[in-house]
Amino acid sequence: MIEQLIRGLFPSTKHTRVALAVASLAIFAACGQRYSDRARATDDAQDTLHHDSIALGNNESIILATTTSTEDSGLLDSLLPGFRAESGIDVKVIAVGTGAALDMARRGNADVVLVHAPASERDYVQSGDLTGGRLLMHNDFLIVGPPDDPVKVRGRSNLSDAMKAIARTGPFVSRGDGSGTEKMELALWKAAAIDPTAVPKREATGQGMGATLNVADQRRGYTLTDRATYLALKHRLTLVPVYEGDATLLNIYHVYVVNPAKHPNVKEAGARRFVEFLVSPGTQRAIGEFGHSRFGQSLFIPDVGKDSSKLSGVSAPPLS
């Protein structure tokens, strides 16, 4: 019904796809699933849609559905001007949880997706919604909590023991948004033989990583975060890393073209050009250098040409 209404209002294919993408996000927000944030307070979350990115203009453009971490960390802000200068193509960014980004691909409402939940991604490749996948980069996840670490997570012998300690005492703040980060969190609960719905002080924000870190900070709680977003925002947080460095916490990013064979509205040429830009030697070098001057370590490790099964954690000293 909603798609029929939008297609009536926007007969142009290009305008229809952008309008559908915006409508999808509006529905998520109405249901309490506020997927996009710029690591600001909840009142500012809607600003992350930045109207200039979704304006129905005539310039050549593609839609990128991606995770909040690539935007919150500032990585996209550093890379996209170079692509625009090189190609003349604007990239309209919709930063959401990985689950929502993949759903946009399923509906044909994006041209490219950049996500970090390999198990879920495989389902969309097998369904024919995604094609041309490339390993792009990785970093890792951290468990962060109050400086005094009241649950005594720091020093635990393994991740399962850490999760059990948090489950007993809490609070734990989850994204609860179907993101790659939440999928990792749920896998950690499962590995510890814990039903997350039974954890008494587990709270789901339904928001992106930046807003979830803010809530955890306010609650003096614990949360799981990607390293890049935490480093980008740590100057405004009291949270500190209490568990890091486990091989299980690897955070792998892939980029895909939404399959034009299944979704004819996809701007295939522009999408493939953007993917080739991301995997090019110059961009890979820029990804590897991003954040180093500010934080003393890279926020992402470039991975083109590597075997994903042989990746290891971020080569950086522990933050805690």
What does this structure look like?
The chain folds into 2 domains: about 10-140 and about 250-305, Periplasmic binding protein-like II (D-Maltodextrin-Binding Protein, domain 2); about 140-250, 3-Layer(aba) Sandwich (D-Maltodextrin-Binding Protein, domain 2). The termini are far apart. The strands form 2 sheets. Strands 1, 2, 3, 4, 7, 8, 9 and 10 form an 8-stranded mixed sheet that branches. Strands 5-6 form a two-stranded parallel sheet. About 40% of the residues lie in helices and about 20% in strands. It has 14 helices and 10 strands. Helix 1 (about 1-10) crosses helix 2. The radius of gyration is 19 Å and the shape is globular. Residues about 1-15, about 20-60 and about 315-320 have low confidence and may be disordered. By secondary structure, the chain is of the alpha/beta class. It has helices spanning about 1-10, 15-30, 50-55, 70, 75-85, 100-105, 120-125, 160-170, 180-190, 210-220, 225-235, 270-280, 280-290, 290-295, and strands at about 60-65, 90-95, 110-115, 130-145, 170-175, 200-205, 225, 240-245, 250-260, 300.
